[in-house]
Amino acid sequence: MCARLERIDMISVRATQWNCQIAALQGASSTTIRALLDDFALRAARQGHKIAGVIELATGESVGACKRRAVRDLSTGTIISISQNLGHGSTACNLDPSGLIEACAAVERAVAAGADLVILSKFGKLEADRGGLSDAFRAAISAGLPILTAVSPAMTAAWRLFAGPLSQFIAADASVVDGWWSGIKSGMVLPAYN
Q1: Which residues form the domain of 96?
Q2: 95 beta partners
Q3: Do residues 99 and 82 make contact, with C-beta atoms less than 8 angstroms apart?
Q4: Helix 97-113 vs helix 134-142: angle between axes, to the nearest 10 degrees?
Q5: CA 54 to chain centre
Q6: Please, what sign has the CA dihedral across residues 10, 13, 16, 17?
Q7: Which has the minimum average pLDDT: 17-21, 27-31, 117-121, 162-166?
């Protein structure tokens, strides 16, 4: 369900009109959702829309306890590593805070430069703890931009606390995403998925 709010306490931004411009994908594997986001970003950019955001790349290469990770900056095409080498035999997660800061800053720059849409791979544990890409979400919300992201079922409660009535869940299906984007461009709102 969407709402019009004058103030968003959780992120201290002023809002004048909200038509559920934040769509959170659910209902498919992370691999399927990544491919859907990537395809949608490419199609929207080909149509002349300025796309800001980052999409996680599937490298498939494991290093220690976690896979090596990187994101692609949608406004520049730059690949940003978000993994660090913790050494052979490490069992700790290899997420690199400086890589995440770089990715977040790239999104914030693209939002400030002017974007039509922000696509962020996912809202996860780091964002729920107000880290990771949470400042990129805030920048997009502050700018009044539509956001397309993914939220795993395990993070649904944290997402609802973070985004509240500003978002809706939609099915991870290309036609549904296209319908959401068409609705955003025309000022209409789709019914919520969940």
Answers
A1: 7-186
A2: 83
A3: yes
A4: 10
A5: 7
A6: negative
A7: 17-21
Residue with token string 């993994």? 83
Q: Which residues pair with 168 in a beta bridge?
A: 23
In angstroms, what CA-CA distances link 159 with 18, 106, 151? 17, 23, 7
In a domain, 193, yes or no: no
Chain-centroid distance of CA 76 in Å reads 16
Contact 156, 29 (CB under 8 A): no
pTM of the prediction?
A: 0.83
Chain-wide mean pLDDT for the chain? Answer: 82
Please state the domain count of the chain: 1
The rounded distance, in Å, linking the Cα atoms of 12 and 130 is 13
Give the tokens for residue 39.
Answer: 């395809």
What pLDDT, in 10s, does the model give residues 43-65? 999 999 999 999 998 766 655 55
H or E segment and range at residue 45: helix 30-46
What is the pLDDT at residue 9?
A: 35
